[in-house]
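Regression report. Comparing outputs from two consecutive submissions.

Submission 1:
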Amino acid sequence: MCRETCLSAGVLERCDLTNDLTVSLEVVREHVLDELGRTFFEPARKFATGPRLRREGRAPYLHLLKWLAESEDWSIQLEAALAQHPEQRGSVGQIIEKRYLEEYLRNNPDLFDDVIHFDASTRMLSIEDPKFLYFLRNLIWNKFARQVGFIATEFTGRYDFALSFAGADRDVAHLINEKLQEAEAAVFYDKNEQHRILASNIEDYLAPIYRSEAEFVVALLGQEYPKRIWAKFESDQFKKRFGDNSIVPIWFADAPPGMFDETTRVGGVTIDRTADIADQVSGIVTAVRL
């Protein structure tokens, strides 16, 4: 930055001291989400349930909230959204046509006016607060649905599987990706989407995939996995999903899990590099696709 720019910005002094940051971005992210949850969980919960929670119902308000979270420009035109989700037209369409949505928002201004706006004339539903959008985009939706009280609502992720691995085990990851795609599964494998990743903030792009957008995460836990920065970043995203039946650990025979390894709490498989890798991968893919 030139001297003139600094002066015009009101910067009059320069500090020559530097500080090393010891707190990881993920720790900061989790702290931010915890703080946002104190403010935004309640309006998100109340919107998701609608005027009355129907535990086994089709959850039209919950689906609207998720569609909003997935929108690129903070808003959705409801007719267009219904065209993209025809399976929800009956339930979501009803709360729009009968003006239940409009009435619900109008009757609860203290909860919703600062975060969600509905224009009845254009049928445009939009998010008013960028922090609320960030909170929604980082929700694990199946978990959130259970927290809200729904017992029959499941969300299919953007991907069926996301692969997490260290570069040393890319050969195995590549084979698993090929076999899963042959079985017509939607797979997040970094090389498949290199063109999208290069145009994005990598952490912002990857975090929601491992946090919630993949129905299952397949973690290839080789010797190098704990040592790699990106493997740690990915595992930090999906670690809260243990217990949700959505993590598939693959332990390598030369890197068995330790006694206190969290992955031992869920079922997984072991792969042995001294045996035929292709045969083992075929067996793994068959198992996870059942």
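Submission 2:
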Amino acid sequence: MPLLWLACFAAVASGLAAQSPDSGVAALERRLQYRQGTIPIGDGIATLTVPATFRYLGPSHTGQILVAWGNPPGSRTLGMLVPAGLSPLSREGWGVVITYDDDGYVKDDDAATIDYDKLLRDMQRSSRDENNEREKAGYQAVELVGWAEPPHYDQASHKLYWAKELSFGDEPDHTLNYNIRVLGRRGVLVLNAVALMDQLDGVRRDMTQVLEVAQFNEGHRYADFKPGSDHVAEYGIAALVAGGIAAKAGLFKGLLALLIAGKKLLIVAVVGIGVGLKRLFSRQKPEAAPSPPTTAR
């Protein structure tokens, strides 16, 4: 399972090889400041209760990790959760990146009637339809193989989770993208993780714990919604799973899903712009990749 280790090593070592011996991966690891316990995030809108099995990194150090993984600087996050005992810069390392979408109150009245098998087929069709354009733009084709974990929505806690199996080009190792959404009064907490498919059992076990970590604070909870005054999102549960806001223009202003050749997605909200596209992060492989076009966030 070399890809994750190589992604980190190549991204960091290539840029730091000429620096002093006290630089590089080890130096970055020493700078990281991990926290556990009760941690407020998002200017007080939510709280993390981080168990002993996980550690939390704040937005600044999370940004450094994302750059080390091959992402451009400037990523906006609320931090990252990493399994205790694993460095996010190690071969086996992975993390759960936390962001917040303030698109409004997401109605969940469609949750019980969603045909997730049909939704999967629609997402797969959209992904295939986009592949020709991705390849013309110099990016790898991507296949949504299927659910690695079918979508589940808990009506009581207003939490949604699912996982996708993705295949990139001719690469033999498939990618696992695990997703959690926590619905709130004015938006959604987004928790996303990536690993390889052979890590599914461990990631599934750990993400079950992550489900309990994030909670909105009083005044920001789903139950605090005020009809008639609070903004309602233009999408529901099905669009959260599909990954986009069908009623809004793509957040990348109509650009294709930027599945950069030689990279893995860290945060993938959807495969295919046809059902909308959210934030993309990527992990590099050591091979050179074409530079993506500049986009506005």
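Expected: both submissions complete independently.
Actual: both completed, but the second showed a warning that disappeared on reload.
Relevant detail on submission 2: The longest strand covers residues 142-154.
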